[in-house]
Amino acid sequence: MKNVTWKIVLLCATAALTAGCAAAAVEAAYGAKAKATYENNIDAANKGDKVAQFKVGEALCCEVNGRDGGYDTRRSVEYLCKSAAQGYGPAMYKLGRIYNGDTVDGVRLMRRAAAAAMAPTNPPIAYAWFSNAKDYGQKDAADAVEEEWKEMTPQQREVAKMQAGRGLGATCRWEETMSK
């Protein structure tokens, strides 16, 4: 029994010590994928292709605290807003997630924890973009609309209704949204 207990302790210690290395490797893989996506889509995005704009926006999203490698939240939002303005539902949903503070995709636990602690939020704007995404058929958007609504104060709900009523004209740009 002692031998089994010792092996479990050793396994747990090894896992704890290598977790940082694994997180760095996962982040490096995401970064390489994002860079390739950006490079493969930037020309089409700059020519107005809404799907390419979405892909570039996703590739640039999102730094945790200030500029973080190749990630740039402001530029990400710029491309996502252009895509959303053309009626692209996935861009609307991603904007809702960004303004909700949920900026990290996948199993990037260290990055997700840091983002949860530091990401700025604007619940009424997140609600408006989730609502737009729902109107444009995004499958997860209905649940997001409901959850966002539950978490807002009455004052935030008033702003959210006004913003959602603007449809694709809802406030979008990072500078406008995060200054409110």
Structure in a nutshell:
The chain is mainly alpha-helical and 180 residues long. The protein has one domain (2-177). The chain is 73% helix and 0% strand.
Summarize the SSE layout with pairings.
Layout: H1 2-46, H2 50-60, H3 73-85, H4 89-100, H5 109-118, H6 123-135, H7 141-151, H8 154-165, H9 174-177
Helix pairs in contact: 1-2, 2-3, 3-4, 4-6, 6-7, 6-8
Which short descriptors sum up this protein?
0% strand, 180 residues, 73% helix, 9 helices, mainly alpha, single chain
Structural class: mainly alpha
The number of helical elements comes to 9
Domains (count): 1
Low-confidence stretches: 9-26, 107-116
Could you describe the 3D structure shown?
With 180 residues, this protein is mainly α. The chain has one domain (2-177). It is 73% helix and 0% strand. The relative contact order is 0.11.
